[in-house]
Backbone:
């Protein structure tokens, strides 16, 4: 089976999480750059990456890379790519998105126009025709220009992979599903540990955590653009990948995952979202303000995206973050993880985070504050297990 270079974009600062995901799927990592990981894989890898990756925004099939400082160089570079190997005569093709950083070519619309013309010229020559019906499968292109180096790829996903299909009503400033999953994977939390989100909004953190605990693949209930690419990927590979995902699900897993929010309407929306995700039986949602947060058990995890900036007036933030700090103090031996753009968060929480990671949520710079509690005591194990460590 033919192999490709596949590009998986992600949130800036979370490349290592995505790299581990791809490695765990069994694929060779070729390159890690800001905001994307490139790996090698065949048609089956396209299917499995779309279905199983929790932290990638999409999966792109790389078709070429070249240097271009002028539109003529761009035209010739695109024209030199063997598009006939990827796009059938009736295929619909266009440059869906172009981004340019520190490059002489910087107008997305002009770049997209030149790319389309160059592809048409190439395919006219190869298919011996002057007109393309474009009534077949869709092949949307994405181009990245970085310091005049052009990377060209076809988008296999279509809608961004954060669109799992379970979230219809969202809160005012939601964390995307892919970002929530990545942040959870940055913590030591496992499915058998307590997890509480006191600002759960539409339920993204609890739902993503429950899907992880039950081993539910994030993309198994949606469609992808590449499912219509029968010239490149055999249809049965998609079916086999979905069957693999189904076989791995454990719906009987025991969890202690809780989501709270002060807004009763948004809590109802969170329950509906969890039901659509198939994990409503694994999560307890309740309307409750953070000042009432408590839990009798030890060694749990708190993870949240509390209000900041435009979501709440600046003058009320100190009191809110003091309440967060007080709630953290009531939780015995817990760890806490907070994603926020509020730069005085540590000051009003009343303690300094053990680690602080800068995360770009879209174009918004935020901080992932990590307050690490003590590890729980080791469970009773055999002498052999202890020696082997």
Residues:
């Amino acid at each position: 089976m033919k192999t490709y270079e596949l590009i998986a974009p992600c949130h800036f600062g979370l490349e290592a999480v995505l790299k581990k995901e791809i490695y765990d799927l069994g694929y060779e990592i070729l390159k890690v750059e800001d905001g994307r990981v490139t790996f090698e894989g065949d048609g089956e890898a396209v299917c499995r990456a779309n279905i199983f990756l929790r932290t990638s925004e999409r999966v792109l099939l790389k078709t070429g890379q070249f240097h271009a400082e002028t539109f003529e160089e761009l035209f010739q570079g695109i024209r030199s790519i063997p598009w006939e190997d990827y796009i059938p005569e009736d295929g619909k093709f266009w440059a869906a998105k172009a981004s340019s950083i520190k490059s002489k070519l910087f107008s997305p619309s002009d770049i997209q126009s030149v790319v389309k013309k160059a592809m048409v010229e190439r395919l006219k020559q190869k298919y011996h025709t002057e007109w393309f019906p474009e009534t077949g499968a869709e092949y949307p292109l994405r181009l990245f220009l970085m310091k005049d180096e052009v990377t060209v790829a076809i988008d296999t996903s279509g809608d961004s992979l954060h669109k799992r299909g379970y979230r219809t009503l969202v809160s005012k400033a939601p964390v995307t599903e892919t970002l929530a999953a990545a942040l959870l994977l940055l913590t030591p939390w496992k499915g058998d540990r307590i997890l509480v989100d006191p600002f759960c909004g539409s339920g993204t953190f609890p739902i993503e955590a429950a899907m992880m605990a039950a081993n539910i693949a994030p993309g198994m209930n949606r469609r992808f653009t590449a499912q219509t690419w029968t010239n490149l990927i055999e249809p049965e590979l998609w079916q086999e990948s979905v069957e693999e995902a189904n076989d791995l699900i454990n719906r009987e897993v025991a969890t202690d995952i809780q989501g709270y929010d002060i807004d009763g309407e948004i809590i109802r929306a969170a329950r509906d979202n969890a039901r659509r995700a198939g994990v409503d039986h694994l999560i307890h949602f309740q309307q409750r303000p953070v000042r009432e947060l408590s839990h009798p058990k030890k060694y749990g995890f708190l993870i949240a995206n509390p209000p900041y900036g435009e979501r709440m007036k600046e003058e009320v933030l100190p009191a809110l973050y003091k309440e967060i700090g007080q709630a953290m103090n009531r939780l015995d031996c817990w760890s806490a993880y907070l994603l926020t753009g509020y730069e005085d968060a540590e000051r009003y929480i009343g303690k300094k985070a053990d680690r602080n990671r800068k995360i770009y949520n879209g174009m918004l710079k935020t901080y992932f504050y990590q307050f690490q509690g003590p590890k729980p005591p080791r469970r009773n194990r055999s002498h052999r297990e202890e020696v082997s460590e």
Observations:
- The longest strand covers residues 92-101.
- The radius of gyration is 23 Å.
- The domain at 3-155 is CATH 3.30.2130.30 (VC0802-like).
